[in-house]
Amino acid sequence: MKVVALFSGHGASAVVLEDGVVTNYFKEERYSRKKHDEGIEHIYQMILDSDPDYIILNTNYDEDEKRELIRRVNPRVQFIETKESVHHLHHASLAFYNSGFDKALVLVVDACGGVVGEDEYEGESIYFARYPCKFTPIYKKNWSEEHVIHDPNIGNLYNSAALAIGQTIDDCGKAMGLSSYGDRIWEIKFTLDRVNNYFQECPDFLDVLFRRRDRYYIDINKDNYKKFADYCCEVQWHCQEQVCELVGKYVKKTGVKKVCIGGGYGLNILTNYQLIKRFPDVEFYFEPLCDDGGNSIGAAMYAYRKITQDMTVKPITTTAHHGIKHKIDLIDGEYSESNDIARLLYMNKSVAVFNGHAESGQRALGNRSILFNALNPDARDIVNRIKKREWYRPFAAIVLEEDAHLYFDDVIPNPYMTVCFPVKTDLIPGVTHVDKTCRVQTVSTGHLYDLLLEFKQLSGHGILLNTSFNLAGEPLVETPEQAIITLCSSELDYLWFYETRQLL
Fold first, then answer.
1. Can you give the pLDDT at residue 330?
2. When comparing pLDDT for 474 and 47, which is higher?
3. Closest Cα partner for 62 from 8, 119, 11?
4. Rounded alpha-carbon distances, angstroms, from residue 419 to 48, 247, 397, 398, 460
């Protein structure tokens, strides 16, 4: 059975699900080259001829027209209606079905979920999930424009940190990076009055922070960063404490010790580490495609289970399934194997890797990655300059799974880069953040594993810096042509097409 889901809006995406397994997944931004694109112009054409049995169509505009066009191509297709209030359910569905758990608690946290009433939106949800499609809500915190400024939910509170440093609500990761440069500024409850007094030189600042009005433009530099870093630090602390409190309360209340984390806040690697640190007897799954771009998959998975009542547990096996297979046979470069690339990296050269299908989420896991020598103390400055990113942003590490304990405390297998861990050595300054942590990807097989083994032969260390193959403000590279353009428009040294072993 084939289910197609097409979602516009924040992180527009489309998916083809066959017998419960993702066969095609597309994000509009990868083709329009507009990050977080809300349109469906490209992805709509890609799924139009997929011949589904069922389709979930949530495009927010021209829905009747698109239904008619689809029926012309496939007269037998059946449409599945969705409600505006199921946004969190789809987040929860994706996390639960990918986890491999047969039952679990699912915590969903984002800034603005589905519409649940007049000017009222989902903020935080906890479900008790069971096969085939039982998601029982056991906790809900909704919010409205009227009261969010006085009692912000976790997602909106974290958004305020991104907005405070002149970014958009799509850039909370930047606030998380800057938070490690700050200190707690308040020892007691986070209140509106405190924020107002703290930013008293900006009388309209609260409207920016909590009502998401116009951006507050500011250049965060090494001379003025501290005030803003302290605010980000305070927000990070309050948000992660609220998340940990929720998880602890409902694990104790239900006795369920398997927990899935979904929703955009699931990308907060600092909070994720606190969860596994504080609850060692709880088994966690952090969904790597937890932002809104994954909701098309979650909707399709839920619909498939509801229709078929399929009880089979099918956990995620890879996130590298975006788009189509690209032809790269026209690339004319120098033939290079893993040992050649390892030698370049050992010589402190930057190498972008292009391999197969792109990663579906925001994390580069080796198919669209820029690699560098993590042993180089100047690595962060060099790669930030290549990517044209802010000076305070950290980088992740890829490491041989069997060697991870040599560099990190408390480390567990983490193939999707969803948790950071404390760094226990001064040997890897290129991936060590100012707070002595690092977002880690452990690898145990595949082309990255082979490359790390070769690098270890040269350096004695099976670890490298890994960041996404894109420049600041751009989506992840999708096509070979985009990869070559990025090489030419940046300070990247090399581009390696792994499948053909061609090096440019």
1. 64
2. 474
3. 8
4. 37, 17, 11, 12, 25
- Amino acid residing at 439: R
Given this model, what pLDDT does residue 332 score? Answer: 80
| Pair type for strands 103-109 and 120-130 | antiparallel
Strands (E), 188-292: 258-262, 283-286
How would you classify residue 11: left for phi > 0, otherwise alpha for psi between -120 and 50, otherwise beta?
left
Tell me, what's the pLDDT at 145?
A: 79
Residue 203: pLDDT band with limits 50, 70, 90: low
Residue 315 CA to residue 416 CA, distance in Å, equals: 13
Note the pLDDT of residue 133. 95
Nearby residues of 410 by Cβ (< 8 Å), 6 or more positions away:
273, 276, 277, 421, 422
Average pLDDT of the residues in 143-170: 86
The three-class DSSP label of residue 127 is strand
Burial of 284 (0-12, 13-18, 19+ CB in 10 A): buried
Nearest to 268 by CA among 249, 243, 294, 247: 243
166: left (phi over 0), alpha (psi -120 to 50) or beta: left
* Integer Cα distance of 46 and 252 in angstroms: 46
Distance CA 239, CA 153 (A): 9
Per the CB < 8 A criterion, the answer to whether 108 and 124 are in contact is yes
Q: Using CA atoms, how far apart are residues 380 and 386, in angstroms rounded to an integer?
A: 10
Q: Determine the Cα–Cα distance for residues 233 and 114; give it in Å rounded to an integer.
A: 28
Return the pLDDT at 333: 87
Q: State residue 214's pLDDT score.
A: 65
Domains in the chain, CATH or no CATH each: 2-81+295-308 (3.30.420.40), 86-286 (3.30.420.40), 334-503 (3.90.870.20)
Q: Is 384 helix (H, G, I), strand (E, B) or coil?
A: helix
Instruction: Tell whether pTM > 0.85.
Output: yes
**Euclidean distance between CA atoms 239 and 237, whole angstroms:** 6
User: Is residue 132 reached through a cis peptide bond, with omega within 30 degrees of 0 on the bond before it?
Assistant: yes
Range list of H helices, 309-431: 338-346, 379-387
pLDDT band of residue 59 (cuts 50, 70, 90) is low
Convert the pLDDT of each residue in 415-442 to its tens digit.
999 999 999 999 999 999 999 999 999 9
pLDDT of 314 > 70? The answer is yes
**Which position has the higher pLDDT, 38 or 188?**
38
Structure tokens of 481? 């042509």
